[in-house]
Amino acid sequence: MNHISTDDLERFHLGRLSDPLVVNGIEHHISECRDCADRMLAIERFIRLLLAGVIRGEFLTVIS
């Protein structure tokens, strides 16, 4: 089974894929591939934590 690239998983999560066939293909693949589903969850968690840190200003403290 071919896996979805991390870049495509990130674009999917962020709603940056415009082709409905690609979106449907990723949704279908994630429903059947545990590895890609786990990677998708990790991406979702990372983005959620990153955004929460930026909103609270914590991220700026870490990089400055």
Describe this structure in words.
It is a single chain. This protein is mostly helical and 64 residues long. It has one domain. Helices cover 78% and strands 0% of the residues. It is built from four helices and no strands. The chain starts with 5 loop residues before the first helix and ends with a helix. The model has no long low-confidence stretch (mean pLDDT 87).
Query: How many discrete structural domains?
Result: 1
End-to-end separation in angstroms reads 42 Å
The general outline is: globular
How many helical stretches?
4
Tally of extended strands? 0
What is the helix/strand order?
HHHH
Q: Give the oligomeric state.
A: single chain
Overall average pLDDT: 87
DSSP strand content: under 5%
Helix share of residues? over 70%
Low-confidence stretches: none
